[in-house]
Design brief:
Rossmann fold; 3 domains; 6-stranded mixed sheet; 4-stranded parallel sheet; 15 helices
């Protein structure tokens, strides 16, 4: 699922505007999005508080982009920003409480992507980690649980695991987490608040002797490649378009400034959709208890490039055609043909991301024969064309 957000504003920003970044949390991708908007509109950006605990006392300018939180430092930043008396946009869920318009990623949509990913892989038990009560974490947990409930999985299927106590030895906390995961006793899909928490789960599994992803499939949020690509098991993550987020915040601030508003007091919260799930090794598994379905799924994974059909899968099974089809519906919630196409789609995504092959070559490699067939399959899963997906993933051009 990928929904474009409108980052245009309804008025022409005046060149020479001076904008302050006052962030309690920093990601260079957000900064880049803001900077691109600023460059296009002739803004000056003061980034001294973009990744700093020191207040920019005496600053004077036209507007502020901030990201509030719930620590003592966040309270200082909040008081500083509100004290400036100029238009401001908050990139968190806390802004409306302080009378600031805010923009954040939709926790329900994040939860829905994660739930669909785990369910598609056959998981029936789920974990949210960590069980913090702070609004950003609580809203994502609620979004995940609601998405699972929509698919028929009740509270008995979901466990919330708390982090260690503040100041607790991190090795002890990881051992405790590993023991808790081990006690579940069956394959489980774990959604973490962000990639850093996901890395902790992977380390906890290593300490407990749990296999990732066979025993515990782990997913983070943010798709921070510096974390996800450099763990002992590369981490699957919900991709958020941080650059777009920054550009959109800048556009919303521009509209406020050009409207002549002075320190607007409003409680609006704009939610923007996540981009997609970037699948890596930490969830690259099918959790299937039925041995014949598991065998058939392995056959598909090993032979999808040979242009196999559902009949080929049935032919290698000890079950009848109707029996295997019923078992697929029961244990994977999809048909044999759907599983073949899903595996091909995942292979196409990897090839579009990792190679500069033509679409015809990619189609041939996954058993589709032509770029036309590849387009048809891709359209079943996403609104993007293969070429658009390749561009957005930062891969080589077609």
């Amino acid at each position: 699922m990928n929904t474009e957000c409108d980052i245009s504003d309804t008025s022409t920003p005046r060149p020479g505007r001076s904008i302050l970044l006052a962030m309690s949390w920093y990601d260079h991708r957000v900064h880049l999005g803001i900077s691109k908007f600023a460059k296009a509109h002739g803004w000056r950006v003061d980034a001294r508080m973009a990744n700093s605990t020191e207040m920019a006392w005496g600053w004077k300018g036209d507007g502020v982009i901030t990201k509030l939180g719930c620590s003592s430092l966040d309270e200082e930043i909040r008081d500083f920003v509100l004290g400036l008396g100029c238009p401001a946009i908050d990139m968190s869920v806390f802004g409306p409480e302080e009378g600031l318009p805010a923009i954040e990623f939709d926790p329900g949509a994040i939860g829905a992507l994660a739930a669909a990913h785990f369910i598609e892989r056959g998981f029936r038990r789920f974990v949210w980690y960590p069980g913090l009560d702070q609004p950003p974490a609580r809203r994502r947990r609620e979004g995940f649980i609601a998405a699972l409930a929509d698919e028929g999985f009740g509270p008995e299927n979901v466990t919330t695991m708390k982090p260690g106590d503040p100041g607790e030895d991190w090795e002890h906390a990881e051992r405790e987490l590993g023991a808790s995961l081990l006690a579940i006793g069956e394959p489980v899909g774990v959604l973490c608040f962000n990639d850093e928490w996901g890395s902790r789960v992977i380390r906890a599994c290593e300490r407990a002797g749990l296999r990732v992803p066979e025993d515990v499939a782990v997913m983070g949020v943010d798709d921070n490649e510096l974390i996800c690509e450099h763990l002992s098991v590369p981490l699957t993550s919900v991709s958020l378009d941080f650059e777009q987020w920054g550009s959109l915040a800048a556009a919303r601030l521009s509209a406020l400034i050009e409207s002549g508003a002075s320190a607007p007091r409003t409680s609006t919260l704009e939610l923007i959709p996540p981009r997609d799930v970037v699948t890596r090794q930490s969830t690259d598994v099918l959790a299937i208890s039925h041995p014949d379905v598991a065998q058939a799924a392995r056959f598909i994974a090993e032979n999808y490039a040979r242009n196999i059909t559902a009949s080929d899968v049935v032919a290698q099974s000890r079950l009848s055609g109707s029996g295997l089809k019923r078992a697929f519906r029961t244990h994977l919630r999809r048909s044999i043909s759907d599983e073949i196409q899903r595996v091909r789609y995942e292979a196409i995504r990897r090839l579009l991301t990792d190679t500069d092959w033509t679409l015809d070559r990619v189609a041939g490699d996954v058993g589709l024969g032509s770029a036309r067939n590849l387009h048809r399959l891709f359209e079943r899963y996403t609104s993007l064309s293969p070429s658009e997906f390749r561009r957005k993933s930062g891969s080589a051009a077609v």
